[in-house]
Amino acid sequence: MGIYLITCLVMTIISIKDVSCWGDITNTTSFTLQYEKPECLQFPLETQPRLLASGGPTNPYNRSFDSLRLPMLGMLEDPTIKILFDIQDGIRYVLQTKNEYTLVYHGTGVMGMSGVLDNLIEPGDKVLVGVIGFWSDVGARNAERFGANVIRMEKPIGSRFSLREIEAGIKQHRPKILYLVNGESSTGVYQPLEGIGNLCHKYDCITIIDVVATVGQQPLKMDEDKIDVVFMNSQKGLGGIVGLSPVSYSPRAMSKVRRRRSLPRILQTDINAQAEAWFITKPIESKHEVYVHSLSVTLLYSLREGLARVAEEGIENVWNRHADTHRYVHFRATKIGLEPFVANPEDRLEGISIFVTPPGKDAFKIEKYMLEKFRIEISPGLVTTLGKVIRIGLIGNNANRETAARLMDALEIALNSTETNS
Ligand SMILES: Cc1ncc(COP(=O)(O)O)c(C=O)c1O
């Protein structure tokens, strides 16, 4: 330590001497700028605290947010590479899987969706999509972009498929891929996964499941349920910051990827390229040969810490905490006469609860009132449900009774106010 400090001191003295010998810093080239610097950037950014309860992004876990201030590491340093392995282990744990090909794409959940579709779809592949709302519709449209022959199975908004309906769809269309959304956050519907994997084994198709709105919130057992591919994002149940999309591919899915006759179209999400960069198929010693793109080291810190926070509590306890918060929200909602949008309690998503906008009330005015009076962000629905519902997300850090009570107290006042009348 002593030798280190003395060396630093000597180096600093030498560099100060070098810099001062270099000449006058004001002796620089004079440029004529065509455009002035923006006035707005002359002031530092200021924001006020918010309770983010719209369905995501949510307020991150403290451990995750605090990690953003940690000193930056270089991207190929050993401690950074260790973070990659910690994250892989953390994702396997929250998904309850042993899948080797478990890693993180840079980009949000939609990037994960595009990545898995790109790797699994070859032009002309039949993809059966269970459409129950906005996000499953996005999945269907996105699969078309990758050349799939998409077949849509649709259910009315607010409901989901039974296993029998899914089997009938697979039997009729014999798809190569079945695409479902586990938590359709636009309508607040939960699509159970039990039995889906067995069906896909029976009829020889691959399951791709959007678990963005269920991971770290509701039970997920990827191996037990024989699910092939899932994607998610970093900012909901994993309690991190927006910008990363973890994915996991089963050995069955990887054998379809290996049989491809063409390369996936997006380099950044090519699972084989990324498996090298995440040191799953290449040793650490090859770290200078496996570059796909720069890593956002700080975002990786925050995801690592979000996952560590979940592991610290225990995933089963995290699931229970979300279930308890969900029950509490519905208990309070019943007391103030709010009608749940999803009729069957068993079909309801737990992280995001959706209620019908009461007659005579305006969902947009309620949203505004909550934000202005209480600094609480809720949502007035999404695309198909826009304006028709009040959408409340209590996810990750916010999934607890105290936060739910604060929100429901505020919502009750908002609903009683004439300012929110339509
Ligand atoms: C079910 C579902 N799928 C996909 C996404 C897209 O994720 P992102 O916004 O991180 O791209 C969302 C976002 O809310 C979602 O709720």
Automatic annotation (TrEMBL):
Gene3D superfamilies recorded: Aspartate Aminotransferase, domain 1, Type I PLP-dependent aspartate aminotransferase-like (Major domain)
Enzyme Commission number: 2.6.1.44
Enzyme class: transferase
Signal sequence range: 1-23
Residue ranges constituting the Aminotransferase class V domain according to the UniProt record: 80-399
UniProt keyword annotations, A-Z: Pyridoxal phosphate, Signal
The reaction(s) this protein catalyses: glyoxylate + L-alanine = glycine + pyruvate
The protein's required cofactors: pyridoxal 5'-phosphate
Stated family: Belongs to the class-V pyridoxal-phosphate-dependent aminotransferase family.
Protein name as annotated: Alanine--glyoxylate aminotransferase
